[in-house]
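Archive record:
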Amino acid sequence: MGRRRSRKRLPEQPVQVRIEDLSHDGRGVAHIDQKTIFIDGALPGELITFKYTGRQRSYDEGAMLSVEEASDDRVEAKCPHFGLCGGCALQHLDPAKQILAKQNVLIENLSRIGSVEPDVILPPVTGPHWGYRRKARLGVRYVAAKGRVLVGFREKRNSFLADMHVCPVLHPVVGEHLDDLSDCIGAMHARQRIAQIEVAVSDVDTVLVFRNMDPLDEHDTQLLEDLAGKLQVNIMLQPGGPDTVAPLSGSIAELSYQLPDENIAFHFQATDFTQVNTDINRSMVRQALDLLDLQAGDSVLDLFCGLGNFTLPIARHVASVTGVEGSAELIQRAADNARLNQIDNVNYHVANLDKPVAEQSWMQVQYDKILLDPPRSGAAELIDQLPTLGARRIVYVSCHPASLARDAGMLVAKGYRLVKAGVMDMFPHTAHVESIALFE
Protein backbone atom coordinates (compact mmCIF):
# COMPACT_ATOMS: atom_id res chain seq x y z
CA MET A 1 0.00 0.00 0.00
CA GLY A 2 1.50 3.30 -1.10
CA ARG A 3 2.09 6.25 1.17
CA ARG A 4 -0.51 8.99 1.13
CA ARG A 5 0.71 12.21 -0.38
CA SER A 6 0.67 14.95 2.26
CA ARG A 7 -1.04 18.24 1.43
CA LYS A 8 1.00 21.33 2.00
CA ARG A 9 -0.61 23.49 4.67
CA LEU A 10 -1.44 27.10 3.94
CA PRO A 11 0.58 29.76 5.78
CA GLU A 12 -1.48 30.92 8.74
CA GLN A 13 0.13 34.30 9.33
CA PRO A 14 -1.20 37.36 7.44
CA VAL A 15 1.17 38.72 4.79
CA GLN A 16 1.75 42.23 3.44
CA VAL A 17 2.31 42.71 -0.27
CA ARG A 18 2.21 45.43 -2.94
CA ILE A 19 -0.33 44.80 -5.73
CA GLU A 20 1.17 45.07 -9.19
CA ASP A 21 -1.70 44.48 -11.62
CA LEU A 22 -5.32 43.44 -12.10
CA SER A 23 -6.15 39.97 -13.44
CA HIS A 24 -8.69 39.29 -16.18
CA ASP A 25 -11.23 38.26 -13.51
CA GLY A 26 -10.76 41.39 -11.40
CA ARG A 27 -8.35 40.13 -8.72
CA GLY A 28 -5.23 41.92 -7.61
CA VAL A 29 -1.97 40.36 -8.82
CA ALA A 30 1.20 40.24 -6.70
CA HIS A 31 4.35 38.12 -6.49
CA ILE A 32 6.06 36.56 -3.49
CA ASP A 33 9.26 34.57 -4.05
CA GLN A 34 8.60 34.86 -7.80
CA LYS A 35 5.24 33.09 -7.48
CA THR A 36 2.05 34.79 -8.65
CA ILE A 37 -0.70 35.42 -6.10
CA PHE A 38 -4.28 36.40 -6.99
CA ILE A 39 -5.99 38.38 -4.23
CA ASP A 40 -9.70 39.21 -4.13
CA GLY A 41 -10.58 42.84 -3.47
CA ALA A 42 -7.13 44.35 -4.09
CA LEU A 43 -6.25 47.04 -6.65
CA PRO A 44 -3.00 47.87 -8.47
CA GLY A 45 -0.59 50.05 -6.46
CA GLU A 46 -2.12 49.18 -3.10
CA LEU A 47 -0.22 47.88 -0.11
CA ILE A 48 -2.49 45.29 1.46
CA THR A 49 -2.53 42.58 4.11
CA PHE A 50 -3.94 39.24 3.03
CA LYS A 51 -4.27 35.63 4.08
CA TYR A 52 -3.63 32.62 1.86
CA THR A 53 -6.78 30.76 0.76
CA GLY A 54 -5.34 28.34 -1.77
CA ARG A 55 -2.10 27.05 -3.26
CA GLN A 56 -1.60 25.63 -6.75
CA ARG A 57 1.55 24.55 -8.49
CA SER A 58 1.84 27.69 -10.60
CA TYR A 59 0.00 30.27 -8.47
CA ASP A 60 -1.46 31.00 -5.04
CA GLU A 61 -4.73 32.64 -3.99
CA GLY A 62 -5.53 34.98 -1.16
CA ALA A 63 -8.24 37.05 0.47
CA MET A 64 -7.55 40.64 1.48
CA LEU A 65 -7.77 41.44 5.18
CA SER A 66 -7.00 45.17 5.14
CA VAL A 67 -5.74 47.98 2.91
CA GLU A 68 -2.65 49.71 4.30
CA GLU A 69 -2.21 52.14 1.39
CA ALA A 70 -5.29 52.56 -0.81
CA SER A 71 -5.34 53.31 -4.52
CA ASP A 72 -6.76 56.68 -5.59
CA ASP A 73 -9.07 54.62 -7.85
CA ARG A 74 -10.71 52.78 -4.95
CA VAL A 75 -14.36 53.63 -4.33
CA GLU A 76 -16.98 52.43 -1.86
CA ALA A 77 -18.96 49.49 -3.25
CA LYS A 78 -22.63 50.36 -3.62
CA CYS A 79 -23.97 46.84 -3.11
CA PRO A 80 -24.04 45.50 0.48
CA HIS A 81 -23.40 42.01 -0.92
CA PHE A 82 -20.26 42.90 -2.88
CA GLY A 83 -17.48 40.52 -2.01
CA LEU A 84 -19.87 37.68 -1.23
CA CYS A 85 -21.91 37.63 -4.46
CA GLY A 86 -20.03 36.38 -7.50
CA GLY A 87 -21.95 38.57 -9.93
CA CYS A 88 -19.68 41.62 -9.62
CA ALA A 89 -15.91 41.75 -9.32
CA LEU A 90 -15.08 45.44 -9.67
CA GLN A 91 -17.47 47.59 -7.63
CA HIS A 92 -14.51 48.79 -5.55
CA LEU A 93 -12.87 50.29 -8.65
CA ASP A 94 -13.89 53.65 -10.14
CA PRO A 95 -16.14 52.89 -13.18
CA ALA A 96 -13.98 55.01 -15.50
CA LYS A 97 -10.99 52.87 -14.51
CA GLN A 98 -12.98 49.64 -14.83
CA ILE A 99 -13.47 50.11 -18.54
CA LEU A 100 -9.81 51.05 -19.03
CA ALA A 101 -8.84 47.83 -17.24
CA LYS A 102 -11.07 45.92 -19.65
CA GLN A 103 -9.46 47.72 -22.57
CA ASN A 104 -6.07 46.57 -21.29
CA VAL A 105 -7.37 42.99 -21.13
CA LEU A 106 -8.44 43.21 -24.77
CA ILE A 107 -5.14 44.70 -25.97
CA GLU A 108 -3.11 42.18 -23.95
CA ASN A 109 -5.13 39.26 -25.35
CA LEU A 110 -4.76 40.49 -28.93
CA SER A 111 -1.01 40.72 -28.48
CA ARG A 112 -0.42 37.55 -26.46
CA ILE A 113 -2.88 35.17 -28.13
CA GLY A 114 -3.32 36.61 -31.61
CA SER A 115 0.08 38.29 -32.05
CA VAL A 116 -1.76 41.30 -33.51
CA GLU A 117 -2.44 44.89 -32.53
CA PRO A 118 -4.99 47.32 -33.96
CA ASP A 119 -3.94 50.43 -35.83
CA VAL A 120 -6.44 52.42 -33.73
CA ILE A 121 -7.90 51.85 -30.25
CA LEU A 122 -11.53 52.92 -30.29
CA PRO A 123 -12.86 55.07 -27.43
CA PRO A 124 -14.71 52.85 -24.92
CA VAL A 125 -18.51 52.71 -25.26
CA THR A 126 -20.07 53.39 -21.86
CA GLY A 127 -23.53 53.83 -20.38
CA PRO A 128 -25.40 53.60 -17.05
CA HIS A 129 -23.51 51.81 -14.28
CA TRP A 130 -26.52 50.77 -12.18
CA GLY A 131 -29.87 49.14 -12.87
CA TYR A 132 -28.72 48.27 -16.38
CA ARG A 133 -29.19 44.50 -16.40
CA ARG A 134 -32.45 43.46 -18.10
CA LYS A 135 -31.77 39.74 -18.62
CA ALA A 136 -30.67 37.42 -15.83
CA ARG A 137 -31.11 33.94 -14.43
CA LEU A 138 -31.57 34.00 -10.66
CA GLY A 139 -30.99 30.92 -8.54
CA VAL A 140 -33.61 29.93 -5.97
CA ARG A 141 -33.03 27.72 -2.92
CA TYR A 142 -34.81 27.19 0.37
CA VAL A 143 -32.21 27.06 3.17
CA ALA A 144 -33.67 25.70 6.39
CA ALA A 145 -30.74 26.94 8.50
CA LYS A 146 -31.49 30.51 7.42
CA GLY A 147 -35.23 30.06 7.61
CA ARG A 148 -35.76 31.66 4.22
CA VAL A 149 -35.60 31.22 0.49
CA LEU A 150 -32.49 32.67 -1.14
CA VAL A 151 -32.96 34.36 -4.51
CA GLY A 152 -30.01 35.73 -6.44
CA PHE A 153 -26.60 34.87 -7.85
CA ARG A 154 -24.01 32.38 -6.66
CA GLU A 155 -21.35 33.27 -4.15
CA LYS A 156 -17.89 34.11 -5.43
CA ARG A 157 -16.00 30.97 -6.47
CA ASN A 158 -18.43 28.41 -5.05
CA SER A 159 -21.80 26.87 -5.87
CA PHE A 160 -23.80 28.28 -2.91
CA LEU A 161 -26.37 30.97 -3.52
CA ALA A 162 -25.48 34.31 -1.97
CA ASP A 163 -27.80 35.55 0.77
CA MET A 164 -29.02 38.68 -1.03
CA HIS A 165 -31.72 41.26 -0.42
CA VAL A 166 -31.02 43.72 -3.25
CA CYS A 167 -29.05 43.81 -6.49
CA PRO A 168 -28.25 47.34 -7.76
CA VAL A 169 -27.04 46.15 -11.18
CA LEU A 170 -30.35 44.44 -11.96
CA HIS A 171 -33.16 46.57 -13.34
CA PRO A 172 -34.93 48.04 -10.26
CA VAL A 173 -38.21 46.29 -11.07
CA VAL A 174 -36.43 43.10 -9.97
CA GLY A 175 -33.23 44.19 -8.23
CA GLU A 176 -35.07 46.10 -5.52
CA HIS A 177 -37.56 43.30 -4.87
CA LEU A 178 -35.50 40.18 -4.14
CA ASP A 179 -37.08 40.00 -0.68
CA ASP A 180 -40.55 40.06 -2.23
CA LEU A 181 -39.57 37.13 -4.44
CA SER A 182 -38.05 35.34 -1.44
CA ASP A 183 -41.09 35.90 0.77
CA CYS A 184 -43.50 34.75 -1.92
CA ILE A 185 -41.65 31.52 -2.68
CA GLY A 186 -41.05 30.92 1.04
CA ALA A 187 -44.82 30.89 1.60
CA MET A 188 -45.45 28.41 -1.23
CA HIS A 189 -46.06 24.69 -0.69
CA ALA A 190 -43.59 24.10 -3.55
CA ARG A 191 -40.89 26.32 -2.06
CA GLN A 192 -38.28 23.55 -2.35
CA ARG A 193 -39.23 22.80 -5.95
CA ILE A 194 -38.65 26.21 -7.53
CA ALA A 195 -35.19 26.03 -9.11
CA GLN A 196 -34.66 29.42 -10.74
CA ILE A 197 -36.26 32.58 -12.06
CA GLU A 198 -35.42 33.88 -15.52
CA VAL A 199 -35.73 37.66 -15.76
CA ALA A 200 -36.60 39.51 -18.97
CA VAL A 201 -37.23 43.26 -18.85
CA SER A 202 -38.32 44.95 -22.08
CA ASP A 203 -38.78 48.64 -22.81
CA VAL A 204 -42.30 48.39 -21.32
CA ASP A 205 -42.98 45.06 -19.61
CA THR A 206 -41.23 42.57 -17.34
CA VAL A 207 -41.57 38.79 -17.44
CA LEU A 208 -40.39 36.44 -14.68
CA VAL A 209 -40.19 32.78 -15.71
CA PHE A 210 -40.38 30.50 -12.66
CA ARG A 211 -38.79 27.06 -13.17
CA ASN A 212 -41.27 24.93 -11.21
CA MET A 213 -40.16 21.32 -10.94
CA ASP A 214 -43.64 20.20 -9.79
CA PRO A 215 -47.14 21.40 -10.77
CA LEU A 216 -48.36 24.24 -8.55
CA ASP A 217 -51.53 23.96 -6.47
CA GLU A 218 -54.19 26.66 -6.19
CA HIS A 219 -52.57 28.16 -3.08
CA ASP A 220 -49.19 28.62 -4.77
CA THR A 221 -50.75 29.91 -7.97
CA GLN A 222 -52.63 32.57 -6.01
CA LEU A 223 -49.42 33.66 -4.25
CA LEU A 224 -47.71 34.16 -7.62
CA GLU A 225 -50.70 36.06 -9.00
CA ASP A 226 -50.58 38.35 -5.96
CA LEU A 227 -46.84 38.85 -6.50
CA ALA A 228 -47.39 39.71 -10.16
CA GLY A 229 -49.91 42.36 -9.16
CA LYS A 230 -47.68 43.80 -6.45
CA LEU A 231 -44.59 44.10 -8.66
CA GLN A 232 -46.53 44.86 -11.85
CA VAL A 233 -44.81 42.03 -13.73
CA ASN A 234 -45.93 39.09 -15.85
CA ILE A 235 -45.21 35.61 -14.49
CA MET A 236 -44.72 32.48 -16.57
CA LEU A 237 -44.05 28.90 -15.51
CA GLN A 238 -41.56 26.41 -16.94
CA PRO A 239 -42.27 22.89 -15.65
CA GLY A 240 -39.95 21.24 -18.19
CA GLY A 241 -37.80 22.21 -21.17
CA PRO A 242 -37.89 25.59 -22.96
CA ASP A 243 -40.95 24.52 -24.98
CA THR A 244 -43.02 24.17 -21.77
CA VAL A 245 -42.92 27.90 -20.88
CA ALA A 246 -46.48 29.17 -20.48
CA PRO A 247 -48.20 32.10 -18.75
CA LEU A 248 -49.34 31.67 -15.16
CA SER A 249 -52.69 33.05 -16.31
CA GLY A 250 -54.07 35.01 -19.22
CA SER A 251 -52.11 35.70 -22.39
CA ILE A 252 -48.36 35.79 -22.93
CA ALA A 253 -46.85 39.25 -22.47
CA GLU A 254 -45.29 40.51 -25.70
CA LEU A 255 -41.83 41.87 -24.95
CA SER A 256 -40.07 44.34 -27.20
CA TYR A 257 -37.13 46.72 -27.36
CA GLN A 258 -36.46 49.64 -29.69
CA LEU A 259 -33.58 50.89 -31.79
CA PRO A 260 -34.83 54.48 -32.15
CA ASP A 261 -32.03 55.59 -34.50
CA GLU A 262 -33.18 53.05 -37.08
CA ASN A 263 -36.91 53.14 -36.24
CA ILE A 264 -36.89 49.41 -35.49
CA ALA A 265 -38.81 47.46 -32.84
CA PHE A 266 -37.82 43.91 -31.89
CA HIS A 267 -40.33 41.51 -30.39
CA PHE A 268 -38.92 38.64 -28.36
CA GLN A 269 -39.83 35.91 -25.90
CA ALA A 270 -38.63 35.91 -22.29
CA THR A 271 -36.28 32.97 -22.87
CA ASP A 272 -34.77 34.34 -26.13
CA PHE A 273 -31.20 35.59 -26.14
CA THR A 274 -31.13 39.38 -26.15
CA GLN A 275 -28.45 41.80 -24.95
CA VAL A 276 -28.70 42.53 -21.23
CA ASN A 277 -27.92 46.25 -21.49
CA THR A 278 -30.33 48.22 -23.70
CA ASP A 279 -28.33 51.46 -23.70
CA ILE A 280 -25.06 49.79 -24.65
CA ASN A 281 -26.81 47.64 -27.25
CA ARG A 282 -28.09 50.76 -29.01
CA SER A 283 -24.61 52.30 -28.98
CA MET A 284 -23.05 49.00 -30.10
CA VAL A 285 -25.37 48.68 -33.10
CA ARG A 286 -24.66 52.28 -34.07
CA GLN A 287 -20.91 51.71 -33.84
CA ALA A 288 -21.08 48.47 -35.83
CA LEU A 289 -22.97 50.22 -38.63
CA ASP A 290 -20.43 53.05 -38.67
CA LEU A 291 -17.49 50.62 -38.84
CA LEU A 292 -19.10 48.66 -41.68
CA ASP A 293 -19.32 51.91 -43.69
CA LEU A 294 -22.53 50.72 -45.31
CA GLN A 295 -23.35 51.80 -48.87
CA ALA A 296 -26.68 51.61 -50.67
CA GLY A 297 -25.53 48.89 -53.06
CA ASP A 298 -23.87 46.65 -50.46
CA SER A 299 -24.60 42.97 -49.93
CA VAL A 300 -23.93 42.08 -46.28
CA LEU A 301 -23.61 38.77 -44.42
CA ASP A 302 -24.59 38.71 -40.73
CA LEU A 303 -23.32 35.55 -38.99
CA PHE A 304 -24.74 34.45 -35.63
CA CYS A 305 -27.57 36.89 -36.33
CA GLY A 306 -29.92 35.83 -33.50
CA LEU A 307 -33.28 37.57 -33.77
CA GLY A 308 -31.88 40.22 -36.12
CA ASN A 309 -30.33 42.71 -33.68
CA PHE A 310 -27.78 43.78 -36.32
CA THR A 311 -29.43 42.37 -39.45
CA LEU A 312 -32.42 44.67 -39.51
CA PRO A 313 -30.63 47.96 -38.85
CA ILE A 314 -28.05 47.01 -41.51
CA ALA A 315 -30.93 46.35 -43.93
CA ARG A 316 -32.07 49.97 -43.63
CA HIS A 317 -28.87 51.07 -45.42
CA VAL A 318 -27.97 48.42 -48.02
CA ALA A 319 -29.29 46.44 -50.97
CA SER A 320 -29.51 43.09 -49.21
CA VAL A 321 -28.60 41.28 -45.98
CA THR A 322 -28.24 37.55 -45.34
CA GLY A 323 -28.64 36.46 -41.72
CA VAL A 324 -27.41 33.06 -40.50
CA GLU A 325 -28.08 31.54 -37.06
CA GLY A 326 -28.05 28.08 -35.51
CA SER A 327 -31.40 28.39 -33.73
CA ALA A 328 -34.44 27.86 -35.96
CA GLU A 329 -36.59 29.51 -33.30
CA LEU A 330 -34.50 32.70 -33.33
CA ILE A 331 -34.49 32.74 -37.14
CA GLN A 332 -38.28 32.57 -37.09
CA ARG A 333 -38.28 35.47 -34.61
CA ALA A 334 -35.90 37.40 -36.90
CA ALA A 335 -38.15 36.84 -39.91
CA ASP A 336 -41.18 37.95 -37.90
CA ASN A 337 -39.33 41.09 -36.83
CA ALA A 338 -38.43 41.85 -40.45
CA ARG A 339 -42.11 41.68 -41.40
CA LEU A 340 -43.11 43.71 -38.34
CA ASN A 341 -40.74 46.50 -39.42
CA GLN A 342 -41.66 46.19 -43.12
CA ILE A 343 -38.10 45.24 -44.09
CA ASP A 344 -38.03 43.00 -47.17
CA ASN A 345 -34.37 42.96 -48.27
CA VAL A 346 -33.32 40.28 -45.74
CA ASN A 347 -33.06 36.54 -46.18
CA TYR A 348 -32.37 34.12 -43.35
CA HIS A 349 -30.79 30.67 -43.06
CA VAL A 350 -30.50 28.16 -40.22
CA ALA A 351 -27.01 26.64 -39.97
CA ASN A 352 -24.73 25.29 -37.25
CA LEU A 353 -21.81 27.70 -37.56
CA ASP A 354 -19.58 25.47 -35.44
CA LYS A 355 -19.55 22.97 -38.31
CA PRO A 356 -18.21 23.21 -41.90
CA VAL A 357 -20.56 25.38 -43.97
CA ALA A 358 -18.74 25.60 -47.33
CA GLU A 359 -21.56 23.73 -49.10
CA GLN A 360 -24.32 25.98 -47.80
CA SER A 361 -26.17 27.99 -50.46
CA TRP A 362 -25.43 31.31 -48.77
CA MET A 363 -21.70 30.50 -48.98
CA GLN A 364 -21.83 30.35 -52.79
CA VAL A 365 -22.20 34.13 -53.28
CA GLN A 366 -20.02 37.17 -52.71
CA TYR A 367 -20.53 39.84 -50.04
CA ASP A 368 -19.22 43.38 -49.64
CA LYS A 369 -19.27 43.39 -45.82
CA ILE A 370 -19.54 40.75 -43.06
CA LEU A 371 -20.63 41.11 -39.44
CA LEU A 372 -19.74 38.41 -36.89
CA ASP A 373 -21.33 38.22 -33.43
CA PRO A 374 -20.38 34.74 -32.15
CA PRO A 375 -20.79 33.20 -28.68
CA ARG A 376 -17.88 32.92 -26.22
CA SER A 377 -16.32 30.09 -28.23
CA GLY A 378 -15.71 32.47 -31.15
CA ALA A 379 -15.84 31.74 -34.87
CA ALA A 380 -12.71 29.65 -35.54
CA GLU A 381 -14.58 27.18 -37.78
CA LEU A 382 -15.62 30.00 -40.11
CA ILE A 383 -12.39 31.98 -40.35
CA ASP A 384 -10.76 29.82 -43.03
CA GLN A 385 -13.79 30.24 -45.29
CA LEU A 386 -14.44 33.96 -44.91
CA PRO A 387 -11.79 35.19 -47.40
CA THR A 388 -13.52 33.25 -50.20
CA LEU A 389 -16.59 35.50 -49.80
CA GLY A 390 -14.73 38.60 -51.00
CA ALA A 391 -15.78 40.96 -48.20
CA ARG A 392 -13.71 44.15 -48.00
CA ARG A 393 -14.68 44.75 -44.37
CA ILE A 394 -15.42 42.48 -41.45
CA VAL A 395 -16.78 43.77 -38.14
CA TYR A 396 -16.43 41.30 -35.28
CA VAL A 397 -18.48 41.78 -32.08
CA SER A 398 -17.10 39.67 -29.25
CA CYS A 399 -18.15 38.68 -25.73
CA HIS A 400 -14.81 36.97 -24.98
CA PRO A 401 -11.49 38.73 -25.69
CA ALA A 402 -9.46 35.51 -25.87
CA SER A 403 -11.68 34.11 -28.66
CA LEU A 404 -11.52 37.41 -30.53
CA ALA A 405 -7.73 37.47 -30.18
CA ARG A 406 -7.39 33.93 -31.54
CA ASP A 407 -9.72 34.66 -34.45
CA ALA A 408 -8.05 38.02 -35.13
CA GLY A 409 -4.71 36.27 -35.52
CA MET A 410 -6.30 33.84 -37.98
CA LEU A 411 -7.92 36.63 -40.01
CA VAL A 412 -4.67 38.57 -40.21
CA ALA A 413 -2.91 35.40 -41.39
CA LYS A 414 -5.56 35.20 -44.13
CA GLY A 415 -4.71 38.67 -45.41
CA TYR A 416 -6.94 40.97 -43.40
CA ARG A 417 -5.62 43.88 -41.32
CA LEU A 418 -6.87 44.67 -37.81
CA VAL A 419 -7.71 48.33 -38.27
CA LYS A 420 -9.64 49.22 -35.13
CA ALA A 421 -10.63 47.58 -31.85
CA GLY A 422 -12.26 48.72 -28.64
CA VAL A 423 -14.37 47.73 -25.66
CA MET A 424 -17.99 48.29 -24.67
CA ASP A 425 -19.17 48.39 -21.05
CA MET A 426 -22.02 45.90 -21.47
CA PHE A 427 -21.57 44.59 -17.89
CA PRO A 428 -20.31 47.36 -15.57
CA HIS A 429 -18.79 46.20 -12.25
CA THR A 430 -18.14 42.70 -13.62
CA ALA A 431 -14.98 41.38 -15.23
CA HIS A 432 -16.87 40.57 -18.44
CA VAL A 433 -15.31 42.21 -21.52
CA GLU A 434 -17.42 43.00 -24.58
CA SER A 435 -15.46 44.26 -27.57
CA ILE A 436 -15.67 45.15 -31.26
CA ALA A 437 -13.06 45.02 -34.01
CA LEU A 438 -12.80 46.13 -37.64
CA PHE A 439 -10.82 44.15 -40.22
CA GLU A 440 -10.08 45.27 -43.76
